[in-house]
């Protein structure tokens, strides 16, 4: 989230909070695609990380992008921490370790999505190249130690950095040393949300396997294909991972609210100041737990919106659904990730087929698969067969959905063209992480340095 929300409307009841989520319901013709992608920022001279302050820096990139785009600067305690397109059609934000993120506009088709990411990267390169800076597309920081990784001056991250070691062993690595590609998709009703949530929760580990691209840590192989996927297994399991109640046949908005109410908060914002609230849940906040700690201690919808943005399930529910399982990667994968999920979820026939395929998948076996995928990728077994076999079935459904959508570009090509990187994974029977490891043990001669030139934006 580029900018934390301010909305002073008082919030009183669980029903109001569920109604807030239900307000995301849209008619199908208003469904949109919002793609987010993060990348690591490095100096081309020595592949070192770029700090926030200085002439050649993260802040210089943001100021340069502001001058190029005219987007509004987002400030935190006097520091620029992001940019917002004035009409709400996109934003640029920083992750804790300086990962540079575009939160794309809500677009109608994947051709627009791919054009958007291409234009963003082209503009960013114009700003970055005179500074000797480029960008790396993969899921985990391959070289820099935690100590070498920069820190961004963003108030919410200070609170999270103090809190993460209390609730999991890998939260700081998640914050500072991983990148993702995500897509945000709409629903038409509570029933439609339920179907899409359940299908995408069950298939999220497949996305992790298909997009695995984080096999290196601290300059050497880490024994995993998706280090990022493994990190999410012990970041903060109160607020992340698979959420078993969402597998229930009657799962709805109020169930998600009930869960969210009992997750510890991170913060509230009052008069531009962030107050650490990690000692209370939102339910306790509503019962007056912050009385005496802050002057304006009663909850409002800005607090609720911000709290929802600090929950980390594999599929996050807001007024849309966020697909959160994939590692970051090269440019073509920025297009492939939304193509995968749009194909599965935005065509009725494809959603029917995906739901039929996964209908009897139980929480327990999906959880076992989630644990296996970071190390084994598509070679993990599900019901006695390799995940490669499931991937072929699911990718065929996604392609069917994209063809049926019939969103054509100027050359008459439909959106299924953006699945090509995933077709290549299945054809080679190797993920991007496995490609990288083969290069490391071969042409790269045991060095991760070439990753910066071969997978840069």
Automatic annotation (TrEMBL):
Pathway involvement of the protein, from the record: Sulfur metabolism; glutathione biosynthesis; glutathione from L-cysteine and L-glutamate: step 1/2
What Pfam families does the record point to? GCS2
In alphabetical order, the GO MF annotations are: glutamate-cysteine ligase activity
Domain of life per record:
Bacteria
Write the record's keywords in alphabetical order, separated by commas.
ATP-binding, Disulfide bond, Glutathione biosynthesis, Ligase, Nucleotide-binding, Transit peptide
Q: What is its EC number?
A: 6.3.2.2
Q: What class of enzyme is it?
A: ligase
Catalytic reaction(s) noted: L-cysteine + L-glutamate + ATP = gamma-L-glutamyl-L-cysteine + ADP + phosphate + H(+)
Quaternary structure and interacting proteins, as annotated: Homodimer or monomer when oxidized or reduced, respectively.
Return the similarity comment.
Belongs to the carboxylate-amine ligase family. Glutamate--cysteine ligase type 2 subfamily.
Question: What's the stated role of this polypeptide?
Answer: Catalyzes the synthesis of gamma-glutamylcysteine (gamma-GC).
Which protein are we looking at?
Answer: Glutamate--cysteine ligase
Organism of provenance: Shinella oryzae
């Amino acid at each position: 989230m580029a900018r934390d929300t301010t909305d002073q409307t008082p919030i009183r009841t669980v029903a109001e909070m569920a109604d807030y989520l239900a307000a995301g319901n849209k008619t199908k013709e208003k469904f949109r695609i919002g793609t987010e992608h993060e990348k690591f920022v490095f100096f081309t001279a020595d592949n070192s990380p770029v700090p926030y302050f200085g002439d050649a820096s993260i802040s210089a990139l943001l100021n340069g992008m502001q001058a190029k785009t005219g987007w509004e600067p987002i400030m935190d305690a006097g520091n620029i921490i992001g940019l917002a397109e004035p009409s709400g059609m996109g934003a640029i934000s920083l992750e804790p370790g300086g990962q540079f993120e575009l939160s794309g506009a809500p677009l109608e088709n994947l051709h627009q999505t791919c054009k958007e990411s291409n234009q963003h990267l082209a503009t960013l390169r114009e700003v970055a190249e005179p500074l000797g800076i480029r960008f790396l597309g993969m899921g985990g920081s391959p070289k820099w130690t935690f100590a070498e990784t920069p820190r961004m001056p963003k108030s919410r991250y200070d609170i999270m950095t103090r809190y993460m070691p209390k609730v999991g062993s890998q939260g700081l690595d998640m914050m500072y040393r991983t990148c993702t590609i995500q897509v945000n998709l709409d629903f038409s009703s509570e029933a439609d949300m339920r179907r899409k949530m359940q299908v995408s929760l069950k298939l999220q580990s497949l996305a992790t396997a298909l997009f695995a691209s984080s096999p290196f840590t601290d300059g050497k192989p880490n024994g995993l294909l998706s280090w990022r996927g493994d990190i999410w297994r012990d970041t903060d399991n109160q607020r992340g991972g698979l959420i078993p109640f969402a597998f229930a046949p009657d799962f709805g908005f109020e169930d998600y609210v009930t869960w969210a109410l009992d997750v510890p908060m991170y913060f509230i914002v009052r008069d531009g100041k962030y107050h650490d609230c990690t000692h209370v849940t939102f339910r306790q906040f509503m019962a007056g737990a912050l009385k005496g700690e802050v002057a304006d201690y009663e909850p409002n919808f800005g607090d609720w919106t911000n709290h929802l943005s600090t929950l980390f399930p594999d599929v996050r529910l807001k007024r849309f659904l966020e697909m959160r399982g994939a590692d970051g990667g090269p440019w073509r994968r920025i297009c492939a990730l939304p193509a995968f999920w749009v194909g599965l979820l935005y065509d009725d026939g494809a959603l029917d087929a995906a739901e039929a395929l996964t209908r009897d998948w139980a929480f327990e076996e999906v959880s076992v698969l989630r644990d296996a995928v970071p190390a084994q990728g598509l070679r993990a077994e599900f019901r006695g067969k390799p995940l490669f076999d499931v991937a072929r079935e699911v990718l065929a459904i996604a392609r069917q959905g994209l063809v049926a959508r019939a969103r054509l570009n100027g050359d008459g090509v439909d959106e299924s063209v953006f699945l090509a990187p995933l077709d290549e994974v299945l054809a080679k029977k190797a993920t991007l992480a496995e490609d990288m490891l083969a290069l490391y043990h071969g042409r790269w001669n045991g060095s991760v340095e070439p990753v910066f030139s071969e997978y840069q934006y």
